[in-house]
Design brief:
By secondary structure, the chain is α/β, with parallel strands linked by helices. It contains 14 helices and 17 strands. The mean pLDDT is 94.
Length: 408
């Protein structure tokens, strides 16, 4: 097909392997009386036959996703607060020990990581395009530039504040289609001795767990060590370390450095070899993933329809961005899921994107426990279930759909 999109990293051919159909913006929670037309796009993913990068087939304009009313707060989870505090302490003990060290964070959100850095008196800058969360970071005393990071941004920062010892991004790099500008910017802003560290959902875990809801509008790329290594090399960078992380359903922390300046750890070669053995982006692997996704959709709909027919109440738990993929792909509505409870005040009183299921505070969940809770926030399962022990004690049961549909 002449209009078939090419790989945004290398220009190679993409092979589509899964299509979730018409989807809304995952964080566009609407007021019940909203009259403006919803934005929809086709959510499908493909893999590059040349560099193996997995990516969305269609790009959503960045201004539609990341804006003043962006509702996600990185500090909303105690697990993630502890995670980012540990990240900051690690940088303070390793990379930020020289004279006048400088760290830049791409997508600093509400400043949950940089808060620890700032408290240590280290020079820092957060680059955050979503104005509301950037204001929250500034209120904590964190230096923030309200902007999208790209090559021109990096050059301005380097000119005004010097080059960085560390550039860090968490759950941010995978959001950005224009990777050449990003990595050229990283190269321009980073000291020769510096490192670019980013952590994002790992495609190997998505395949293993069939966590298909990790695929939504904000996640444009799905990284592996193999694809990151190839991508870095195109921009004078080298993958020098990888670390598997348990957060957000399985991530990898990638460390890049200017090519030839650091010796890659054994972990890099080991993960690349594992990916080759697993044939992560082969047609057979990807088509098998798509088949499992279809089975999950069928099984989840059957379970919810049976619960409805038996007069059982089902409530969703966690109005997450990724829940938009599940809800819209499966065609859920308030007849199957009465409402979704969420702790984020900005989402409460609104309707879920596309499916228009009411979002209510957790107090509504606890006021009259349902028979089942559909756990959209499955990546925070331990934290959620520990907090909601009374639900289980009252006879409630959790529905999970990763790695398959099952009831706890």
């Amino acid at each position: 097909m002449a209009d078939r999109p090419g790989c945004r990293v290398c220009g190679g051919d993409l092979r589509q392997f899964v299509d979730f159909g018409r989807q809304p913006l995952s964080d566009a929670f609407r007021l019940p009386d909203a009259s403006e037309e919803e934005f929809f796009f086709r959510l499908a993913a493909g893999a590059c036959g040349t560099c193996s990068m997995v990516q969305l087939m269609e790009e959503v304009p960045r201004d539609r996703m990341f804006h003043a009313d962006y509702p996600y707060l990185s500090s909303g989870s105690s697990v993630m607060r502890a995670h980012f505090a540990a990240v900051a302490r690690r940088f303070l003990a390793t990379e930020l020990t020289g004279a006048d060290p400088f760290i830049v964070e791409l997508g600093c959100n509400d400043g949950v990581m940089l808060g620890t850095v700032a408290a240590a008196g280290i020079r820092h800058l957060g680059v955050e395009p979503s104005g509301g969360v950037a204001d929250q970071a500034r209120a904590k005393g964190i230096e923030v530039r309200k902007d999208f990071f790209e090559e021109s941004t990096a050059l301005e920062i380097a000119d005004a504040q010097g080059r960085a010892d560390v550039i860090y991004a968490a759950n941010t790099l995978c959001h950005i289609p224009y990777m050449a500008s990003i990595l050229n910017g990283v190269r321009a802003l980073l000291k020769p001795s510096g490192v670019f560290v980013f952590e994002d959902p790992y495609f190997g875990d998505i395949i293993e767990r069939t966590s298909f809801d990790q695929i939504y509008d904000e996640h444009f790329y799905f990284f592996t060590a193999t694809s990151v290594s190839a991508m870095a090399a195109r921009h004078g960078l080298e993958l020098v370390d990888v670390e598997r992380l348990p957060v957000h359903g399985g991530e990898v922390r990638y460390t890049l450095a200017p090519a030839g300046n650091r010796t890659p750890s054994a972990a890099v070669a080991a993960l690349v070899a594992e990916e080759r053995r697993r044939e992560l982006t082969s047609a057979a692997t990807l088509d098998g993933f798509a088949s499992r996704v279809e089975k999950i959709r069928g099984d989840l709909l059957t379970l919810l329809q049976d619960a409805r027919d038996q007069g059982r109440r089902v409530v969703g738990y966690g109005a997450t961005a990724k829940s938009a993929t599940v809800a819209n792909f499966c065609g859920l509505d308030s007849g199957l899921v009465e409402f979704v409870c969420d702790t984020t005040a900005a989402k409460q009183g609104r309707l879920t994107p596309g499916t228009h299921i009411p979002v209510r505070p957790p107090e509504e969940f606890r006021r009259s426990y349902p028979d089942y809770a559909l756990l959209f926030a499955w990546n925070h399962a331990d934290e959620v279930m520990a907090k909601e022990q009374a639900f289980r004690e009252a006879g409630g049961r959790w529905i999970r759909y990763v790695p398959d549909v099952h009831v706890l």
